[in-house]
């Protein structure tokens, strides 16, 4: 029943009650009161029902709005899922194509065996090439001598800074002396002979050469009229400079060098170039081998690396080193200066061994060398000792005689 119909019934009822009340009797009055109370209760319940109806209607509207929101979100999620599915499908297609490509590229067992055989041939060829290089170094010259003792000491002069290097060109027939003062500079002093170096003073050298680039450290040498030195501001670059015109003619990078000073007691020298009876060498320290020394044989013409040896000689407490006939001799000292000793050697021919060789002492004088260069012709060491240019006379013997002792 609608609200309007209920109101019509109530109105009719009131009119009827009013009519009965006007005719009046006590019993009728009681009935009328009872009916009025009932009508009042019905009216109150009708109001409550109407309020609940309004509430339910609002909740229904809110629920409908919420469902519409969920449907909208669901549509968005469905679109995203569809997009992801399309992307995954495209990736799967691509993977299938790549797998098909790889399957076509995977060699057969026969191809693998051929590749392995070729690799083995290349390895054997490389090993044979290395053996040929080592054999060539060994037989290039009759080099079977080793150091037996350091006989005498001669202080030639005091010139230049505390650190420096001096040496002669070991080329046959050359008597020129060269001096490089300091740990970084670009000036080379050239003297016609040892006598002219002794008689001259530092203000009037025979010849002053300005190098194209600064050097760093004290590991320079002159060989066949060319100066070889470590270029400043580079970790491992060796320059070759023609001393006739002062121009750079070649350079090379020494693999693995320049990360550690070659000698801990000379922290400014990272590459030490040396010359012996076999030719040109570079000595450096490698942190990957515990800081031990590494020697590299260079071609004097092209500066190409011929071979490299890792030695057991440590760089810690070392102040210098030199080579005689392919054997490295490492000189050790203390950081306060003391009597220099040779405590470690490495022979590339594997004839003499460090653990079988006695410690060799320099003459009784407290020294601190910043450079030591061996001259294979004179059989002398040219050393720089706190600004003093010093010569050590060395005595050599055949390696079979050295090992017998």
Describe the structure concisely.
This protein has 5 helices and 20 strands. It has helices spanning 3-23, 26-105, 109-139, 194-199, 399-404, and strands at 145-158, 164-168, 177-181, 187-191, 207-210, 221-223, 226-230, 237-242, 247-253, 272-276, 279-286, 292-298, 305-314, 318-324, 327-332, 341-347, 360-361, 369-375, 380-385, 388-398.
Order of helices and strands: HHHEEEEHEEEEEEEEEEEEEEEEH
| Largest sheet data | 4 strands, antiparallel
Helix content: 25-40%
Lateral strand order in the biggest sheet: 1-20-19-18
Query: Overall 3D geometry?
Result: elongated
Q: What integer is the average pLDDT?
A: 85
Structural class: alpha+beta
Tally of strands: 20
What's the end-to-end separation, in Å?
134 Å
How many individual helices? 5
Task: Give me the secondary-structure topology.
Layout: H1 3-23, H2 26-105, H3 109-139, E1 145-158, E2 164-168, E3 177-181, E4 187-191, H4 194-199, E5 207-210, E6 221-223, E7 226-230, E8 237-242, E9 247-253, E10 272-276, E11 279-286, E12 292-298, E13 305-314, E14 318-324, E15 327-332, E16 341-347, E17 360-361, E18 369-375, E19 380-385, E20 388-398, H5 399-404
Antiparallel strand pairs: 1-20, 2-3, 3-4, 4-5, 6-7, 7-8, 8-9, 10-11, 11-12, 12-13, 14-15, 15-16, 16-17, 18-19, 19-20
């Amino acid at each position: 029943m609608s609200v309007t119909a209920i109101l019509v019934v109530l109105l009719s009822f009131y009119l009827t009650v009013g009519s009965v009340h006007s005719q009046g009797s006590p019993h009728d009055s009681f009935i009328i009161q009872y009916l009025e109370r009932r009508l009042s209760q019905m009216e109150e319940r009708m109001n409550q029902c109407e309020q609940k109806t309004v509430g339910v209607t609002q909740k229904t509207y809110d629920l409908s709005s919420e469902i519409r929101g969920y449907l909208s979100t669901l549509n968005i999620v469905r679109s995203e899922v569809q997009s992801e599915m399309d992307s995954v499908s495209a990736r799967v297609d691509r993977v299938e194509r790549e797998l098909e490509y790889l399957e076509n590229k995977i060699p057969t067992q026969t191809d693998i065996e051929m590749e392995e055989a070729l690799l083995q041939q290349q390895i054997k060829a490389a090993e044979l090439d290395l053996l040929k290089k080592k054999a060539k170094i060994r037989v290039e010259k009759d080099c079977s001598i080793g150091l037996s003792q350091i006989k005498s000491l001669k202080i030639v002069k005091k010139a230049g800074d505390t650190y420096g290097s001096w040496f002669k060109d070991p080329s046959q027939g050359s008597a020129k002396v060269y001096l490089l003062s300091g740990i970084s500079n670009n000036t080379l002093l050239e003297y016609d002979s040892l006598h002219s170096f002794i008689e001259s003073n530092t203000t009037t050298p025979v010849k002053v050469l300005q190098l194209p680039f600064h050097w760093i450290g004290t590991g320079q040498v002159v060989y066949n009229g060319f100066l070889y030195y470590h270029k400043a501001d580079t970790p491992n670059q060796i320059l070759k400079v023609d001393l006739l015109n002062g121009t750079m003619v070649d350079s090379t990078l020494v693999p693995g060098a320049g990360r550690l000073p070659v000698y801990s007691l000379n922290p400014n020298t990272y590459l030490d170039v040396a010359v012996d009876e076999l030719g040109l060498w570079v000595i450096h320290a490698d942190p990957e081998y515990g800081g031990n020394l590494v020697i590299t044989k260079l071609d004097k013409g092209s500066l190409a690396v011929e071979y490299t040896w890792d030695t057991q000689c440590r760089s810690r407490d070392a102040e210098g080193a030199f080579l005689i006939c392919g054997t490295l001799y490492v000189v050790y000292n203390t950081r306060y200066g003391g009597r220099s000793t040779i405590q470690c050697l490495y022979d590339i021919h594997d004839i003499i061994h460090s653990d079988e060789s006695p410690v060799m002492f320099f003459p009784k004088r407290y020294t601190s060398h910043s450079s030591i260069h061996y001259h294979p012709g004179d059989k002398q060491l040219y050393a720089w000792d706190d600004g003093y240019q010093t010569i050590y006379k060395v005595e050599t013997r055949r390696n079979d005689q050295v090992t017998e002792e």
